[in-house]
Specification:
Layout: E1 14-17, E2 23-24, E3 29-32, H1 37-54, E4 63-70, E5 79-84, E6 87-92, H2 95-108, E7 110-112, E8 115-118, E9 121-125, E10 131-137, H3 145-157, E11 162-166, E12 168-169, E13 172-173, H4 182-187, H5 206-218, E14 222-229, H6 234-239, H7 251-260, H8 286-301, E15 307-311, H9 320-336, E16 340-344, E17 357-360, H10 370-379, E18 384-386, H11 389-392, H12 415-419, E19 435-442, H13 450-457, H14 460-469, H15 481-489, H16 492-497
Parallel strand pairs: 3-4, 4-6, 10-11, 10-19, 11-14, 14-15, 15-16, 16-17, 17-18, 18-19
Antiparallel strand pairs: 1-9, 2-8, 5-6, 5-9, 7-8, 12-13
Helix pairs in contact: 1-2, 3-5, 8-9
Bound molecules: ligand TNX.
The site of ligand TNX has 11 residues, from loops.
């Protein structure tokens, strides 16, 4: 008889199940090994996770059968987990590794008539890619700090380590900056839809933003803020009209507006539709670059992570030569601040700052020369983050009749499609070392609440996590759709306990507890 795979997502590098009876959890099991500050943090995480999973209380330590400790050696973020009848030992070279090991341990917990237990197992795990990201669009709809924290909890439990916040777009500017206060005063009050009750808009104060950065750090996630320029800037135009062109309503753009429905954008009025590409900053005015210096300077000062995302997508309203000139200067401004710029792949066409990381959002089979633009980042000496829209976009509908989501990227999509793509070789000439990592974006034109986020992101976010973390399929026989399908289905009870309202996709047989 072939036993089912253990319910682990993303799949660890090496899993060896033993024949032994496994580890029985008892109330009061002490999580020990607090030899370093990191170890203490890991212990706290473990207690928290075990409590959520089992409903048991671990408040009164009785013995020390669960141990978590730092052990030097091994790649960053890696960990080793040993579970047997007499105890559990989790070791890692860093705090992130202990954190990921704690999540693996939590996924392994299951119950029978006698109570909660862990199977006897030895796991040695380490990530494939160092950048494992999720993106949340807080511009099309604004999400309060508590919702973003909940998404950080969810993503980090699947071993994602970057949260890209799409902070600005035509429909709203979502972070307060002292250097340019009108951005939030005049550009943050609305969002897509425009209903004052369901789409009220909003913004993060600087204290909110710092709170998010700090919270993310406790879950080993780095915030990557994006200020999308030179397009997607209608909200900037509301605040500082002198910096922006009036809405560009070319026949091509009017087609886009018609396709998305709603009114055409109007100069001086908030935009609450879903069209893209009609707005542009003024390219030949030095005031624009003073603006970029202020905005990116202030953002850099409050962002400890290495990356600032400058956008650069869908600038349909900006002539190509102007776009190239603009992206070169925008990326240089960010590089001069000591940060690594990230730009959507369109910017590959420009002479951008050399270490600019490209983010590819074309299809898994590239069209329209998008692969050439992506390759340009690598030729420039940098690397790529891969977010193929037809596989990694969490805002694509999973079913035609889903009330949420869009379909433009070859939708409706499926969990199988979200799982079955391979970063290396997807774009001709892009090898393992050219890939910085993988990111799953969630655009929020149709998404308003945490419940909406859960329904769209889960379970496909787990597929993205496996593509980002786990070994390539060729290196591990368990890296198959059939195995993933079973493993992810077995996570249903854990997700339910954690309050995650996942979409019970019909492709998967969900385990019920
Ligand atoms: C494309 S792909 C966009 C966003 C939209 C998204 C909706 C990319 C870089 N930009 O402006 O929100 O499609 O799926």
């Amino acid at each position: 008889m072939v036993s089912p795979p253990l319910p682990l997502v993303p799949l660890p590098r090496a899993v060896r199940a033993s024949d032994g009876p496994g580890f029985r959890l008892a109330t009061g099991d002490l999580i020990a090994g607090a030899t370093t500050i990191d170890g203490t943090a890991a212990s706290r995480v473990l207690v928290e996770l075990l409590t959520i999973r089992t409903g048991m209380s671990f408040a009164t330590p009785l013995n020390a059968r669960i141990e978590a400790r730092i052990e030097r050696g091994g790649p960053p973020e890696s960990y080793a987990l040993h579970s047997a009848a007499d105890g559990i030992i989790l070791t890692a070279p860093d705090d992130a590794g202990l954190f990921y090991g704690a999540h693996t341990l939590t996924q392994l917990i299951t119950s029978d008539d006698e109570g909660w237990y862990l199977p006897a197992v030895d796991i040695a795990d380490a990530p494939r890619f160092s950048y494992r990201g999720v993106m949340l669009d807080v511009a099309r709809h604004f999400f309060p700090v508590e919702v973003v924290k909940a998404y950080i909890d969810r993503a980090s439990s699947l071993k994602f380590n970057h949260l890209h916040l799409h902070l600005t777009d035509d429909q709203g500017w979502r972070v307060h900056l002292e250097s340019r206060p009108r951005l939030t005063e005049a550009g943050s009050a609305t969002s897509v839809g425009g209903d004052p009750d369901s789409d009220p808009g909003g913004f993060y104060t600087k204290a909110d933003y710092r709170d998010l950065v700090a919270y993310a750090a406790t879950r080993h996630m780095t915030i990557v803020p994006e200020v999308d320029v030179p397009g997607h800037t209608h909200a900037v135009a509301l605040a500082y009209p002198e910096l922006a062109e009036p809405p560009v309503l070319s026949p091509e753009i009017l087609d886009v507006v018609r396709e998305y429905g709603g009114r055409a954008p109007t100069e001086g009025e908030p935009y609450t539709g879903m069209a893209v590409g009609f707005s542009s900053l003024k390219i030949h005015d030095e005031a624009t670059y003073d603006f970029l210096a202020d905005v990116f300077g202030e953002l850099a000062a409050m962002t400890p992570g290495p990356f600032l995302h400058v956008g650069g997508d869908e600038a349909l309203g900006t002539p190509a030569a102007d776009f190239a000139e603009f992206m070169a200067r925008a990326t240089e401004i960010v590089a001069d601040l000591g940060k690594t710029p990230i730009a959507w792949h369109e910017a590959g066409a420009a002479s951008i700052a050399i270490d600019t990381v490209g983010q590819y959002w074309g299809f898994t089979t590239p069209t329209d020369g998008m692969d050439a633009k992506a390759r340009a980042f690598v030729r420039n000496g940098s690397r790529l983050i891969l977010s193929p829209a037809d596989a990694a976009y969490l805002d694509m509908k999973e079913a035609e009749d889903s009330p949420l989501g869009l379909t433009w990227a070859n939708g409706p999509t499926s969990v199988q499609r979200a799982y079955s793509w391979e970063p290396v070789g997807m774009i001709d000439g892009i090898g393992e070392d050219d890939v910085l990592g993988v990111e799953a974006p969630l655009w929020t034109e149709t998404i308003r609440t945490l419940a909406d986020i859960d329904r769209m992101a889960f379970p496909r976010i787990a597929a993205a996590a496996e593509v980002a973390w786990s070994s390539a399929p060729a290196a591990n026989p368990e890296r198959t759709w059939a195995s993933f399908r079973e493993r992810v289905g077995a996570l249903g009870p854990l997700w339910t306990r954690a309050g995650i309202g996942f979409c019970a996709s019909r492709e998967i047989e969900w385990v019920r507890e």
